[in-house]
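#struct-help
A.M.: can someone run this one for me? Single chain, 338 residues.
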Amino acid sequence: MEVTARVVTLRLAETFTISRESQDEADVVQVEVRHGDTSGFGEAAPIDRYVESAESALAYVEANGDALGDDPFALDEIFDRLPREQFAARNAIDAALHDLQGKLLGLPVHRLLGLRRGGPPTSWTIWLGDPDDMARRAEKTTRENRFRRLKLKLGGRDGLDVERVRAVKSVTDLPLQVDVNEYWSLDEALEYLPQMELQYCEQPLPAGDRGGPELKGKSPVPIFVDEDCHTLGDVAACAERAHGINIKLNKSGGIREAVRMAHAARALGLGVMLGCMIESGLGIAAGAHFASLCDHVDLDGNILIADDPWPGVELVDGVQLPPTSPGLGVRQAVPSPR
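D.P.: on it. Structure tokens below:
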């Protein structure tokens, strides 16, 4: 198999703000794996929090192309040969191989996996701002009637997080979820959560915080962990500190590991959430094919960008439905003439 990769800059429709940063664009790495006359494609959205970048992901793909061998179906052997690092890059290779397999067999990826098409409704992210601004954006989203869930980014460290939730709650009847991105202390979480009506709270404490088990025992709101949970080996420990885990393909290294994580979480009585980064439809499609294994889905990354270069994932009644054509089912858009 021949492997090539390139860095692509995705421009956001609006500035996206969380507790750690604001951004107007995101660099991803798009990978092509070619076998004979057929190509599979995948996308890496590296996560700065884990010291990964587009440059490091690109270097990983270029350095390890020979490890893929000749058989696109030999996934165990391929990923045993690949260094266990740069998980966003591994995800891009995993997605490209699944895309290639599907095209060779004439099947969409969810059918390759034996899964249902689709999953729970995706949430739409209301990024961090002052309470009135978040309420205005939530009200606008509710009027548009495209989404069935809202996820609020919290962690402003200004004492206004409860007001943010109250302000949004005053303008919408949609179910609310929040993501704190590690920016509360245990005392803050225990104070704030009883005042919030939520489906769940994602990663309120810093990863590894000793207060995690206490918060799980006392919280009136289900706790899901993101930064605490990367791959299969992390799932068991998460049962001590959370009610569920957030799987992201760019953390796990791809669909194959994500499926293992979902089944392990179920065995431990944990809920399963599927998250995303800012990604094109190429990255989101891989998640959409896996989504039926999850209780909650946050797959809005392609909707956040100004112009999706890989259309094909369809938002239907709030659900991000994967295409039914072979492989991941998305195709690169032809740029419009200027």
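A.M.: thanks! The first helix runs from residue 54 to 63.
D.P.: also worth noting: Residues 15 and 248 are 22 Å apart (CA to CA).
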